[in-house]
Amino acid sequence: MARVLVGVKRVIDYAVKIRVKPDKTGVVTDGVKHSMNPFDEIAIEEAVRMKEKKYAQEVIAVSCGPAQSQETIRTALAMGADRGIHVEVSGPEYEALQPIHVSKILAKLAQDEKADIVIVGKQAIDDDCNQTAQMVAGVLDWPAGTFCSKIEASQGELTITREVDGGLEVIKVKTPAVLSADLRLNEPRYATLPNIMKAKKKQIKKVTPKDLGIDTSPRIEVVSVEEPPTRKAGSIVPDVDTLIAKLKEGGHVK
Amino acid sequence: MCKIPESKEHINQNHIFTNELLPTGTDFYLTDRFSSALQRFESTLVIAEHNNGVLSPITQNALAAATKIGGDVTVLVAGTKCGPASEAVSKAPGVAKVIVAESEAFNGLTPESITPLVLATQKQLNFSHILAGASAFGKALLPRIAAKLDVSPASDVIAIKSPDTFIRQIYAGNAIQTVKVKDNIKILSVRGTAFKPVALEGGSAKIEAAPAGDYKSAQVEFIKQELTKSDRPDLASAKVVVSGGRGLKSGDNFKLLYALADKLNAAVGASRAAVDAGYVPNDLQVGQTGKIVAPDLYIAVGISGAIQHLAGMKDSKTIVAINKDPDAPIHQVADYGLVADLFKAVPELTEKL
């Protein structure tokens, strides 16, 4: 049976309207609601379903970040992951942490833990990079099934339906493999109170990138973070005729 | 500025140094000069996207970004049938060379087969930049190449400030990030809507064969594609987009939007709610995790305007919202808002246009 490693990221909650710091160094994160990246919830759900179907024997949730990342790992454990690994990265080192670093960390852990499958979300909703799965696969020289909307697992092989621009695509990859979860892959379950209580007893191992031999020196320097240009206030039109007149004025319709 | 010691003046600035050429203890000097030498010779590889017949329009946007970087532009066309795409792209002005790799190995254009081809090409020609459009193809491929080259890629770039400084959006377009890439090779995916496409006429690049090799991957097998068929313009590049949300109430009611779209020669898009409810297929989703569009006119019908949807359309030139809720957030970004029942307003609009 397979061992599945799932990467989960703690991000600012998707419903929060973010604020840019006045000094333009980033966005305000202190005192702001955080939760698990929505795509990672889907990744955990898929891994847990693999376990329920007796395809996977163990699900390991990994998060790289400051101490609070343990809450994200607890959420994954409450959803059904068996144990967690917290790769502690904080302060300026965390600010500069990027998919290239995370992918090397996940790749090393996948080897150390003898994982057959690595699943992450297709992108984190904070940096919007959409790189980690592809880079883990590159580092390990494993095939990648990106933007998965359906995964059928059989011995030594996965049949994957991917969301591509014009529609869907089906590929078969050999395991070990790296997968990234798209929105349509599944509907993540809610952690129930008993499971949240049980998750408190599950083990979370703590390591640092240094323990894993991963260099996290910055490869990209963030020069500035700014507010996007604001749109000029529009107007409410009273009826369809006025709307058409406005569109004609703007040259949008003849 | 550090002063360059006189004893080294004789070294040709354009020369790529090796350690043997320099006395020991000059590491700083070497790195400094090496990086400035690179900046004088930008050379960009654009990985073309095509469907074994037609060049995808986003390649023309990626070429525009490559032109902004300066220096030579080379285009790589890989696939099972490369003739039409390589000929089309060879006519783009500013393209110096088109490299073609035609083989059954590239069936399905899998990153596992194209990555070793790009690495072989990179080894031979030493590009300073590797680019592709930020489509499903580019997003799946570029980070894998970056990992193999041990460089940190920049995703979905919306502007080129200089050969090493790029602008991109974070937090669903709610913040603009300027990044300076420190790695020697810069790998970028390019947001199509942010760069005006390069015309495919006037140029005459030479077409050459790519480095030979066995690129077939045993790890992955392409089975099939199921593409949504439509006579309407492509969503990502349409001039007018009509999008529907949960307010449409059923897939059947999307007919109202198709009728309006036909009048305007528009593409049809959707919010996540409409896709999740099964009204339309996934590939019509506009937003942070779907397609990013920036048409001249975007008409949002029965869409509330969640952060994640706005991320995909708020760079549209003119936004029209038709929503019966006057407090819907979509009205805050709309140039013209019509507070009305869409089931009355849309047919009326279609009829009067």
List strands and helices in order, with pairings.
The complex is a heterodimer of chains A (254) and B (353).
Chain A lengths: L1 E6 L2 E3 L21 E3 L1 H15 L3 E10 L3 H11 L3 E6 L2 H5 L3 H14 L4 E5 L10 H9 L3 E11 L2 E8 L2 E8 L2 E5 L11 H7 L4 E4 L12 E7 L8 E3 L2 H10 L5
Parallel strand pairs in A: 1-4, 1-6, 4-5, 5-11, 6-10, 7-10
Antiparallel strand pairs in A: 2-3, 7-8, 8-9
Helix pairs in contact in A: 2-6, 4-5
Chain B lengths: L26 H14 L2 E5 L10 H12 L2 E8 L3 H8 L6 E6 L8 H15 L3 E5 L2 H14 L4 E9 L2 E6 L4 E7 L4 E5 L15 E4 L10 E8 L12 E5 L9 H11 L2 E4 L1 H5 L20 E5 L5 H4 L7 E5 L7 H4 L2 E3 L3 H11 L1
Parallel strand pairs in B: 1-2, 1-4, 2-3, 3-9, 4-8, 5-8, 11-12, 11-13, 13-14, 14-15
Antiparallel strand pairs in B: 5-6, 6-7
Q: Any overview of this molecule?
A:
The complex is a heterodimer of chains A (about 250) and B (about 350). Chain A has about 250 residues and is α/β, with parallel strands linked by helices. Chain A has 7 helices and 13 strands. Chain A has helices spanning about 40-50, 70-80, 90-95, 100-110, 130-140, 195-200, 240-250, and strands at about 1-5, 10, 35, 55-65, 85-90, 115-120, 145-155, 155-165, 165-175, 175-180, 205, 220-225, 235. Chain A has a 9-stranded mixed sheet with strand order 9-8-7-10-6-1-4-5-11, with helices on both faces. The model of chain A has no long low-confidence stretch (mean pLDDT about 95). With about 350 residues, chain B is an alpha/beta fold. Helix content of chain B is about 30%, strand content about 25%. In chain B, a hairpin with a 4-residue loop joins strand 6 and strand 7. Chain B is elongated. Residues about 1-40 of chain B have low confidence and may be disordered. The chains are: A alpha/beta (about 250), B alpha/beta (about 350). At the A-B interface, helix 4, helix 5, strand 7, strand 8 and strand 9 of A face helix 4, helix 5, strand 5, strand 6 and strand 7 of B.
